[in-house]
Amino acid sequence: DNIRSIRVESGAWVGFEHIDFQGQQFILERGEYPNWESYAGSLSYHSERFMSFRPIYCASHQSSRMMIYEKENFTGRCTELRDDYPSLEAMGWFRPEVGSMHV
């Protein structure tokens, strides 16, 4: 048996295509997912089923950080992220892309 549509009531979850948390992973946030296209989007790889799930436990933002760099291989201008940002521009990054990141 497998699951083909989902409603996430709260929190964030990872859905796996195989049992025992194996295979392709998809992040599911609050909302409805009536079919695989609603959670896979335009990915070239898709799974039309979920066989196992795991909740995502978020760490305190005070201990989380990520460095983003303008160019590949951690070079160029860099900025440290310690909070949620809705866009690159909102955090003062005025380029349309990030070259590399270190978590």
UniProtKB/TrEMBL annotation:
GO molecular function term, any single one: structural constituent of eye lens
Any one Gene Ontology BP term: visual perception
Keywords noted in UniProt: Repeat
Domain spans labelled Beta/gamma crystallin 'Greek key': 11-57, 64-103
The keyword Transmembrane is assigned to this record: no
Annotated InterPro entries: Beta/Gamma-Crystallin, Beta/gamma_crystallin, G_crystallin-like
Pfam families named among the record's database cross-references: Crystall (PF00030)
Family: Belongs to the beta/gamma-crystallin family.
Protein name as catalogued: Beta/gamma crystallin 'Greek key' domain-containing protein
